[in-house]
Records
---
Amino acid sequence: MKPPFSRSPKRIATRRRDQGVAILWSLGSLLLLSVLVVATLSISERDRSTSRLYAQSSETKLLSQTAANLVVGQIRDATTNLGISKTWASQPGAIRVFTNDPQPDSNRAEMEAMYKLYSDETMVITGNAFDPLSDVPDPTWDDSPDIWTDINEGVSITDSDDSSQQTYVYPIANFHPDPTREIEGFDADRSSMPDGARDSIGIPMPVKWLYLLQDGQITAPSNVSGSSATFSTVVPTEDNPIVGRVAFWTDDESCKININTASESAFWDTPFSNGNTERAYVFKGPVRNEFQRYPGHPATTSLSAVLDPWLTIRDPNRPQVSELQPYWLLSPRIADGGSRGGTREVFGTSPVNTDSDRIYASVDEFSFANLSRSSRNLDDINSAGSETYFDNDFFKIAPFLLTAQSRAPEVNLFNKPRVSLWPLQLDDNQRNAVDELLAFCSTANELPYYIQRADVWTSSGSRGSSQSPTQDLNIPRNEQLYEYIYRLMDTDIPGFGGNFEEKYGDKDARQIALQMVDYIRSSVNTIPFGLSPEYRFAPSFNSEGARSVVPLADNSENIRGYGRSVTPTEAMLVFFPSKTDGLAVIQGNKDRFPRRRDFRALATEMRAFLLLETATVTPGFPGLNPHLQYRISGLNGFSVENRSLRFPAEAQIDAHSRVGSYAGSQMGTFVGGLVTLRHGSNAQFPRTVGTLSRTQYPFTSAIGVDGVPITISQDPDTANLRFSGGTIEIEVLDWTGTEILQTLTLDFPDTSIPAPYVQTDGEIDETKGEMGYNAAEDRVYLKYDSRELNFNDRLAEMNTPDNIKEWLVRPGDVTRSVEVSTAGDSPTKGDLRHVMAQASVPQSYFAPHPSYEGGTSVRFASGYRHAAWQWNGNLYVEGSAPNENDALDSGQKNTPAGQRSTRSLNRFKQSTRATAGILVPQATYFRDSVPAVPTADPNLPGGVVSLKKNGRPGDWDTGMAILEDGPFINKPDETNITAEGGRDSRNFGVGTLFNIQRNGDREDNGGVSFSPNRQIASAIQMGSLPSGIHGKGGNNRPWETLLFCPNPPSRETSPADTPNQNDHFGFIAPYDHLLADLFWMPVVEPYAISEPLSTAGKINLNHQILPFTYLTRDTGLRAVLKNMRIMAMPTDAANRSRMDPIYKEGSICRFSFRYGVNVDETLEGINRRFEEGDIYRSATEICETFLVPERISGETYYRPPRDPNYDQTLDWWERHLLTGDNVRERPYNQIYPRLTTKSNVYRIHVRVESLKKSRSSTPGEFSHLRDIVTGKWQGSFLVERFVDPNDVTLPDFASNSQSSFDDDSVDDYYQFRTLEVNEFQP
Amino acid sequence: MNSNPEIQRGIRFRPPARGFTLAEVILSMGIIASVSIPMVALLALGLENMRESKGDFMKARIEKHLSSMVTQANWGETNLLKDFDSMEWEYDGQGTPIEDRGDVDPIYVARVGIDAPAPGAPPEGLLMPGSTTPSREMKRVTITISDRPGLENPFSASGGLTEFSFIATRNDRR
């Protein structure tokens, strides 16, 4: 090996040749140096370049943050420091702030400012005027790239499948390239859309650049076009140069469908008739955890509005399970089971087992959702056989239509917390897990914003606060919340102006506030099941006072609510024969043997007893049977023929019965007997507590003392007995008899009456002679049933409940009643709600029966109704409906006591003409639909009692299922589906809707169907609460309730015009629907969709996109409206000659009363607000918009009118006058809770460039041709405003202190957080 | 040690070879001088580039540090954002804030300005384009970084200044 550094002999020998080596060495060194220097330079340049990029990246990130902060700052400026006098509403691209100063000739207040959430030269518009078209980009925008930029500019990429193909990817939105996969409601008006789209699916969204100066000032170009940007207000200078520019546009996430809350299924509602559709709501109703069918639940918002092109439902009106399953698999915590989208009967089923899928973090995750998301084998469902449901283009369009993060604030227009509609027990130990979550959602800084109940029922000896009128209201926090609601009603409403105290007067404002509090307390969550601990707020179904709740009373204001109880509506005096010899009454030719129908025997003595008819305004389920005491005084003055009837001066009864004793089979076909309007009269007879044994009934002529002698021998109908009455006072007391709940004053005028007689079955009394003939008297004697002569014997018959109709009042009795007045000038006009709501009911609320003064020609002058099936529920009264079937087929045996067997039968007789008033002028009521109103005053045209004081139709409710219509307050449906029984045990008779499948009188012992969110969705449900109990100046307004819909029957103004107060009192500004804004129902199942002060998944009514008004995205609203139904009963629905069977009959009605919603036409109405340049300030304003009905294909409708357009909708409703107020408002109850006008989550789309001014260019201008763009960034920020509910500085927004009330609002406590930052990197 | 005897001899005893001629030396020197001087200058340029690169990195890092602090500052009752105004920070050569000066000499010094007054600008809050009222919820923030902390006034024009500006908004509750 050659050693290193060796020098060869040859080289030594020739060293002379080394001359010049130094130069070579030098050159070598220089070369080395050069390499070193070049390397150093190269490295330094690369470093420099890298560091510059890093610095530029840092700068552009800072710029992008600046852009996002500008938007957040705008949002904050718009949504804070508002106090209780301003409110705001958002839409894509803007937030508007409204004052509480009403605009002239409008029911809305003025806009104070509009804060743009897109970059523009005018970021804040002040004043009331804004033209949404004013900001539409200049058509030549594309020529001025230093002034405008397309925030949605497409970027070309190579198609992954075909490298020769270039496609564009858009950062915000684009259409689907396949026209067959168009999304409903996502479109553009291409005639007004600006140029600049890269391809046919692109949507130019040009906004202006805003320039950032060195000192942080923001300036906008003053020119709208040109090759450079020039400035006028804030002008860049050499010392303060332009350093960057930003452009942004902000989307409102609440305009998108939330993939974590929406799902798909079939519509469900409480049944209001007995048609096939309604029966399907019974048999195939949603069970527990079938959230996608709960009324108003976010899961009823239809994902198919977006996904239908991929997951097609062939007939949306009748979705198949296989079509729904993919949706349920995609939706977190939504599962198959129960009614399976209304396709399966649910008896004997179990609650749905929800899946455990976590909620989606982003739309991308949803788009990639694949079959492995569920353990189920979906091979047969996913016909495409691909790994995901969706194609590549879905990924690109989905983020503009779907969201994983939308939330809306749950504050009212005053920026204060809403009050929860779910009542809870004061004691934490009496709350189940769902209760706790609901409590959490309605608590801020440990202060509850929900109504509490002092105690629950545990036994007959421990009945809880439901049986006290004051115990719950005395809870300090309840007192505060009651006062809070009243104060909010007494404060000018931001966004609208005016207040309810001015509109209704102080007394009615308080009355409405108390009604609402009591409605929450009494109408929902009375018997929850399936969750531990189980509790009963109202007494158990088989205990005294079953399911009743005593009305809440504000004694300081002398007002009260309704609870779930009864009020006396009629006092009936029954004169009955107490002694007879059996002497037959013979009419006509006495030589002739009396005809069977004349088998009457003369009485020789008479007595009397008084019966109270009581009524509830909360019929429905569960069954109701209050335990009350009644004290009556003043009866002792009553006499006949100047002989005292010997009533006690004052007496008191303890009246109760147990639902369980009379429910089910004992009631036979008389289903609903104890749940219908009229409280069972058998309940008023005193009992020993806990048993069925009766004690003495005191409101009778003195027992054991002779009655009033009757010394007539002629026809008792012609006897003229003089009755002297007087004023009586009825006091309704609580079950202990210590607390007076209500006092009523009634006056019985003096009058003439015929004589009572004894009804016999015509059997001759042979003991009096042959064939009963007494020759001396020339008269026939008849055998009689002595039970008829003795009140206690009559009463004994009531142990067989049906006998009450036959034995309590007999054909030979005489009745005289004083009942709730229906006279046109009376305070009530038969509206029983007005009686129920009065603590002291004056005499003027009652009137003698119209036939009271009929003299001897009128035997029965009463409208007394028994709590049985409607048409045979009347006791013996004039003009009762004939039961033609019984009479024709069964003779007298089963004839209801209220029927005269001798009446000529008229198959289609209008049964209520004589027994009760009617509700709809044009309607003819068959026997099964007798409205729950008192006897009509004879001066009322057509017997219509329900007209308002201006003569227009009034507000009444359609009864649940086959219950009668009447003056109700829309009791929430607490009905459960039993876990017991099944198809075999089903009774397909009239009981089907109630006792068996709906299990109205029994408790859901399996917890199969109970859920808070199924019972109540929103305060729209309170729309049947009267609004004029007292009236301004004492001028009360019967048959007028809170108005939560645009189509009350009294409206005559076209949908195209603004309604007025003649159309309804609720149309006086502020409109009634704004009351619903004060409340909310947190959604806590299947997971906490609601949090304190916010709820996810609500859709913004304000879908108009600013400034890109040429772009339409109302898909979210379509998702809300898509599966909705409108119920409407034709005016002929109660007329048997037109509709057989009628809508309330036990037999199944073959017609459907449910219509779909014409979404296009309805949106036409919704969009009119935008065309006016305005937006919706409150989601309750949906109640001003007509839902346009359309027939559902395949359904059978009664003489259906043509489907209307928006402006024809009122005419359409004119043909459906038999539709109650509650049913008209019902769709809004399902729609409103899924809507909002405020968003908490915004996606800010940002495009920024860091800039460097060229030394040679003018400092006051910027041109991309002369100046330098040093960095770019494009992407989006997802930001959320939120309140920390545990913030210890949160004040008590419901404080009793006026100054705190005026000063404290939630808006100042909002914080912001960034949920996502996405860089656009196609 | 090398075992080649010839080499060993050469190293130890061979007289040095004849040196370079003057001409060679002069020529070499000339070449070296004419080429290396610009080379060295270029080297200096490269080094300056590297220094500036580092400076860019460090300033970007300092900007991030300060902007995130300002962005996250509480605007609430304690009004901490106000405290940032005119506050100065010193950083070492790695862009790390110097908490305790001690023996460490700062390499960079930075100052934050909140709503720095500018001609025609309101004293507080950001005036959005087209608006006449400054925003309550946004503030202009400038970050000025000097790499000459030794100067009496490092934020003067000769201070090797880098300036950043952005808009901060309130994230906490009012």
Note: The mean pLDDT of chain B is 79.
---
Amino acid sequence: MTQKTFRLFPVTAEHDELSALALRVREHVVRMATRGGCFVGASLSCADILVHLYKRVLRTGPERVADPDRDYLFLSKGHDVPALYGLLAELGYFPRERLARHLDPADSIYWHPNRGIPGVEFHSGSLGHLLSVAMGVALDVKLRGGPNRVYVVLGDGELDEGSCWEGFLVASALGLDNLVAVIDRNWFQANLRTEELVPLEPLGAKLAAFGWAVRCADGHDFADLDRAFAGLPVVERRPTAVIAETVRGKGLPSLESRADRWFANFSAEEVEALLAELHGIRAAVITSPTLVVR
Amino acid sequence: MKDYGETLLALAESDPNVVVMTAENRAAIRGLPEKLRGRFVDVGICEQTMIGMAAGLALRGRLPVVHALATFLTMRAFEFIRTDVGIAGLPVVLVGGVPGFLSEANGPTHQAIEDVALMRGIPGMQVVCPADGEELAAALPAILASRRPTYVRYHAGAPVTGTHAPFSLGKAEVFGDGFDVAILTYGLLCREALAAKELLAEAGIAARVVNLRSLKPIDETAVLVAARARLVVVVEDHLQTGGLTSILAELLLARGRTARVRSLALAERWFRPALLPAVLEVEGFTGRHIAERAAAWLRMPEA
């Protein structure tokens, strides 16, 4: 598998609505990346995946947060939660105005997922946790004969954690074919490219060797994601992994694949410039000394 | 009397939400797989995955009772316990096998002598340390009914007493009413503490033994009453840091009380691996050792 160049937004008619939604989610992410900042790069890489899952795949919705038959989505790489929060607000899980209270101690929207926020299934942030939590939910669904599917979004850097590979082994042993791991393959750890630090390739072959059914997709192409999530489970008694190829900072060429844009705290002017760039008006020039790498 | 496995099976049969899990440690639950079928989950030697899965099961309304050796459960999977079970306050029962001296001749890799410190350090986590199999069986229904995360320092040894006082979380069991010496202890060493009490009585020293089977929540009243004794001796197969010795110090400090306290615990070291009777002998934790040390401390002039 090699890195590819992606279209900024898919142009097929049936995906226009998703593209527009993903753009609004990215606007929320950029707006959260100021006055304290957020993990902007990862949030932008997974935005299209989350939009696609919530609009095209998951059988859930704001009216179903307590429905035991809903599909579950666990965000294991928790630092990309601004994308999830932006999307949940757009979908009506909570008012959009609440996003403006990001990092406000009077609210509880902080840098990592808080399960007190409607739509967030579990807290995360410590990497390598939610595959196993998702497995517990998937196992219970199996025991009860429920219709639900359980999706867990993992970062590729996160796969350094041994607990992920423990989970891959056990999920396969338990035959959890209602479990889907979606890997946001943005090719970056916090500071370095994955293949420069701890190479993961051949990632698909590794997962297949662990007993998973593996599909690959362009994580910014809704038509390709449609194909990847169609007809699950791919193989009876096997969990499914979807390796979604993405670009860190996607949508903002001035940030894409810049190692120092993992966590960012932009000035108000930079936020405006980035919003303009997001809409394809002009490229932003980011010089702020407030850029922080965490 | 039902043993641990039978008690757990009965609870699982009366409550369909109970799920029994293990990280390939079946010693105490060997008869359960065929009885519980899908509700018995062995994940292999994957303690972290077991805890994460238990959290997921609990999110769905299950009551997971998980099993692994105390060292690997509380240390290999510590962050999973703290983060997945602890932060969410999920009703997962963590049963740690061969804690403290019960690891016998395994050596330091297997010595859970910091487990109480680690588990009680998690906000909301209960810590239960039964003195014998009867107390363990009595504690289990109360723990499950509490719907709180709980660490159980598994000990299913022969009965230390005829009949225990009924088990209740946060309630100690007190043997005797002497105020010369109060021995505060839990778990395996209750037996030795009770033997020490008899030996002290023969020497004309009136002792009481406080069996702190529920270390968290702690029975403050029983401890503070015991602290009025001329000498308080804490006996624990745990590091001196973070266990009952620390709990007592914290409690006295919080209540503005003082007491003359001595601690028989492991100070900054692991214990010498051997079969249990030899460990007790060589480490100085038999009833005779406890009685002799208590009598000697009592004879020392009060500072």
Note: The interface with chain B takes residues 68, 115, 121-123, 126, 128-144, 162-163, 166-167, 169-170, 173-174 of chain A (CB under 8 Å).
